[in-house]
Write a structure and sequence with these properties.
The structure is a single chain. The protein is 58% helix and 0% strand. The chain is mostly helical.
Length: 107
């Protein structure tokens, strides 16, 4: 059984999760979809899936299009910061090279 089979939205009209626009009735539609997601046992998996595949439309895992864009930006900033930290501290590759040099027999 896949995570989609356990989703709270599996019996709901999919159109609810894909509002047209971002204001007025569309905002109410997003809120209604998010209420369904709030009690979903696979909400986190759904959100992660949408972030991983770069889904830009609709409500996924309780997050609207705007919320997912924000999450993606934060994730990108964290990854960039981690990469910079690895580069300045020697990173995993340099650490492995140091370990190899320590364990090699002297000639």
């Amino acid at each position: 059984m896949s995570w989609q089979d356990r989703a709270a939205c599996r019996t709901v009209d999919p159109e609810l999760f894909f509002p047209v626009g971002t204001a007025g009735p569309a905002r109410l539609q997003v809120q209604k979809a998010q209420r369904i997601c709030a009690g979903c046992p696979v909400r986190e998996v759904c959100l992660e899936y949408a972030l991983d595949i770069g889904e830009s439309a609709g409500v996924w895992g309780g997050a609207s299009e705007e919320e997912r864009r924000s999450l993606k930006r934060r994730r990108s900033r964290r990854q960039a910061a981690a990469a910079r930290a690895d580069a300045t501290s020697g990173g995993p590759a340099e650490s492995r090279a140091r370990e190899r040099s320590v364990t090699r027999p002297a000639r």
